[in-house]
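Sync notes, pocket subgroup
Present: LS, DG
LS reminded everyone that the earlier model was apo-only. Rerun requested with 6-O-phosphono-beta-D-glucopyranose included. Inputs:
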Amino acid sequence: MKALPDDFLWGGAIAANQSEGAFREGGKGLSLVDLLPVKGDRMKCMLDGAYALAHEGKYEYYPSHKSIDFYHHYKTDIQLLAEMGYKVFRLSVSWPRIFPNGDEQLPNEEGLRFYDAIFDECLKYGIKPLVTLNHFDTPLGLVKKYGGWRHREVIDCYLRYCEVLFKRYKEKVEYWITFNEINMLLHLPFIGAGLVFEAGENKEQVKYQAAHYQLVASAMATKLAHEINPANKVGCMLAAGNVYPFTCDPEDVWAALEKDREQFFFTDVQVRGAYPSYVQRFFHEHNIKLDIADGDLEAMKHTVDYVSFSYYSSRSISAKPDSAPSTEGNVFGSALNPYLPTSEWGWQIDPLGLRITMNTLYDRYQKPLFIVENGLGATDRIEADGSINDDYRIDYLEKHIKAMQEAVADGVELIGYTSWGCIDIVSASSGEMSKRYGFVYVDLDNEGNGTLERRRKKSFYWYQNVIKNNGVIE
Ligand code: BG6
């Protein structure tokens, strides 16, 4: 097997809204995620912004308000990552911690100081921060004032925020991601873009308009990052996973191609710098007419340095929806692939799918890739002796890391690998703590009870070894 480069970036990833808590401390404003309850109505809120706004303050428990309290535990948490030998730590900055309402002219200094401290702590251990600028937490103020990303004004608010971060952290951060899983706005329009639909309107029109604004904002932020520091490396970020045809019926093959295009639509713009040709017919047939201002298409020509993505599973599709049962868990909706096992949360497990996805992305773009999310959400049990023997997680990660190395041997250029939820955090889709991804266990339950004590799992030592051996797994 081809060896990974010596400077390969091994690490893990978390997001502010799922880890920080302290939702009202340090001058932070509310983000749209702060309206989401645990389980129950959560998915309904993520899909339907009007429902989420109508239920503001009505739920008993909001997981993002407390989360794992990374806000007060970051020193011990980063120390644990350093102990595993991390080279990179992906985290997001909470936009409303810097601009509480989103549209202020000046940033919140206390919020900036918090991230200064975090980045200093990482650098102390030689860990490079990889910063996501917007991970599902558009300020609620922008949602209420502008309807989130349905309004062009939000581009300026976002760029003001980006400029503050690029200048402030010029000496501390080089790796940036403009939007987490940008294609998620088509599937979960409230958390992806703060969209609240009006009765009877063309939802596709609203979603693709918001996508246009995010794509313009992403390109302009990339340009700005390069101007402020030419050493900056800026990536797009896709919720990836190739779509397989359910059978070799050409109808299924075509359906899979169209589904793949639904995701590549975003990266085609961010990597190639222009709308792909196939989108014209799609827009026409769905009655989508975009507001494209002078300069938008020119701005889009500023492309990213690398393609980052999350990979949890492949998907599959049948042209005849009723002919195949579908998976339960994943928000993408997929036909149940009979060749794959399924996790406790209904997500199918497909390590070879990672190799397929990486080869597809690299063939398409010829840009370095960065795997910034991958992992298994599972229930963990603490044994009587205090140990947590998460062999299922080790098994999942080992198979995916091996598949990743196969892709590198295939010729794919890869910057690094950050597994998702390296410390247990709140699940984005369900709000549960019991859906754990981490190498580090956090004592917290789905209702917010627990000591918040951190505890090393068996996978902690396993990953420490993987990093030490630069991916060579015996
Ligand atoms: C990705 C998100 O969609 O998947 C993360 O970028 C999320 O925020 C992760 O946590 C795993 O999903 P879940 O729902 O299991 O937390």
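DG: Residues 203-228 form the longest helix (26 residues).
LS: The chain is about 40% helix and 10% strand.
Action: DG to write up.
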